[in-house]
């Protein structure tokens, strides 16, 4: 993997992590286009996700500080909801990790199908009128399962969780905020686990450190601005445009499969 490929993958990860278009799906399509050799195990994926997690921490630093420093009131309940939302993803990661890893092999057809699903969810959630229902534990639990399903490449985590919360009656601003905050423990936990696996294996890392650093920087910067931009857009625009985009990319992926066969 060279510096240009690392920068491109970092840019794709940073932008698509926060837009409802599936970062994993775009990364898988990039691998299908450039070749599978651009991914050196799961290390690159961990580094890029850590970069976007850091950008999320900075964007929501005030909210996170309130969650961690407040022991009573609404903030405490909000923290509990985030913990509840982590349970499904933890279960899926614990029992189906090896199976899920096999899905990340540049399978453009799988990505196309899942992007179609993402676009359809965005389309229907866009029809829901904005409401002011209060976020409850049941919402956190069910959206946690949506987040677990979004492990599949092509299912947008932000798109599916925001869309699901909108369908549950949560207003757009609250849905976006909870969607971005609930993923932080999952990303950090997964990255920690992968890091421990690398340490236990004792195997040398075969990827150059330079492209990794560049990919991290690009993913962090693009993720920071994409997160800020998404918070602005989701409260002012419709999700239908993102649905059209997902369907369009899915059609291109299907075309890629047929041309490559």
Polypeptide structure, described:
The protein is mainly alpha-helical. The radius of gyration is 18 Å and the shape is globular. The longest helix is centred in the last third of the chain and has 30 residues, at 172-201. Mean pLDDT is 79; it is low at 37-41. It has eleven helices and no strands.
| CA-based gyration radius | 18 Å
Residues in helix, %: over 70%
Number of helical elements: 11
**How many runs of DSSP E, i.e. beta strands?**
0
Q: Note poorly predicted spans.
A: 37-41
Order of H and E elements: HHHHHHHHHHH
Largest sheet: none
Sheet-strand content, in percent, reads under 5%
What is this structure's SSE topology?
Layout: H1 3-18, H2 23-34, H3 43-59, H4 61-69, H5 74-101, H6 108-126, H7 137-149, H8 157-167, H9 172-201, H10 209-234, H11 240-260
Helix pairs in contact: 1-2, 1-3, 1-10, 2-6, 3-9, 3-10, 5-7, 5-9, 6-8, 6-11, 7-8, 8-9
